[in-house]
Amino acid sequence: MGLKPLSLQSWLEVDGDFHTQLILKAKLLSQCHDAVFAAIPGTQLAQKESLTLIVNYLLTHFPSIYQLTKDRRESLYNLKTQQTWQLTDAKIAPLDLAARLVQEDLCLMQPSVEGYRLAAASVCFPLRWRLQEKVGQPMRKIHQRVPEYPERLKCSVDNMFERLKVSSPGLRFNWTIVDSPELRLLQNKQMTEFNAAITAENAGERLWLRVERQTLRRLPASHNILFTIRTFVYPLWQVTQQLDAAADLLKAIAVLKPEMQVYKNLLPFRQALMGYLTSCIKSTTQTKLLTKTTQ
After folding, report:
1. Which pTM was predicted?
2. What pLDDT, in 10s, does the model give residues 187-217?
3. Which of 18, 74, 85, 294 gives the lowest tally of CB atoms within 10 Å of its CB?
């Protein structure tokens, strides 16, 4: 799974897209709330625990952005977006409110007789999945389309969830190549039809590297797990400007099994992508040789 220890000091992040993404979240929650937020009964206490944990973290680590105000009802003020949130507002679910404060999407994983299940979530930026189809489902059903999940990954995931300690959160990254820069990506999964519009010549402008920074943190009181997803989208041409990035990406794609390439939706443009990366590597090699020659 590639899970690594995470320092609590680095749990949540704020970057240059903070204002834009929080405003986009607010818009989505206003226009299509039921598609973005969902919760099953019995999660209220764990949601409140999540909200309290996140608010305390933000006040501690980002005091120049978040301020707590004291009036008749305790509220949190965001200086960057100029939003004020009543922390005790009974009209909004606690996890819903928590997700409006940060760039991360939030998923609450609850122990059940079938293993951990998705009990509540605010997901504004999904990668080709719909929250309403997953909420209330156990991990094995949520990931049933992931290649080799039942045979190889299920036990590892279950054991990892069981062993996760309050004091030891985890961090992992997930990546794919997509043909859209949209954060809220609802295209069908496992598309295989060839896309002739994307070629080796224009792949750098027509494709994006999408990376999810995922954290897992055990809640001390409810023992639920708060799963956060922070999504980054980079133009492929920008990525390949980094030293050895094209070669590393080419190797990573080459070792993917065919079924995983289908799962990641790479088949419609795989040939063009590989051609583009190969040309980037050749160009870099020629530049290095030229540099050595002129030195």
Report:
1. 0.92
2. 766 666 778 899 999 999 999 999 999 999 9
3. 294
Span 224-268, pLDDT tens digits: 999 999 999 999 999 999 989 999 999 999 999 999 999 999 999
Distance CA 246, CA 254 (A): 12
Under DSSP, is residue 109 helix (H, G, I), strand (E, B) or coil? strand
Quote the tokens at residue 121.
């979530």
The CA distance from 11 to 141, in Å, is: 28
Bridge partners of 75, per DSSP, are 69, 86
CB of 121 within 8 A of CB of 131? Answer: yes
Spans of the chain below 70 pLDDT: 1, 71-73, 188-192, 286-295
Two tokens at 143?
């990931």
The answer for residues whose C-beta is within 8 angstroms of residue 14's C-beta and 6 or more apart is 62, 65, 103
DSSP structure string for the chain: ---EE--GGGSS---TTHHHHHHHHHHHHHHSHHHHEEE-TT-HHHHHHHHHHHHHHHHHH-TTTEEEE-SSS-EEEETTTTEEEETT-TTS-HHHHHHHSSSSEEEEEE--TTS-EEEEEE-SS-BS--HHHHTT-BHHHHTTTSTTIIIIIHHHHHHHHHH-BTTB-EEEEEEEEES---SSB-PPSS--S--TT--TTTHHHH-EEEEEEEEEEE-TTT--EEEEEEEEEEEHHHHTTSTTHHHHHHHHHHTS-HHHHHHTT-GGGHHHHHHHHHHHHHHHHHHHHHHHHH-
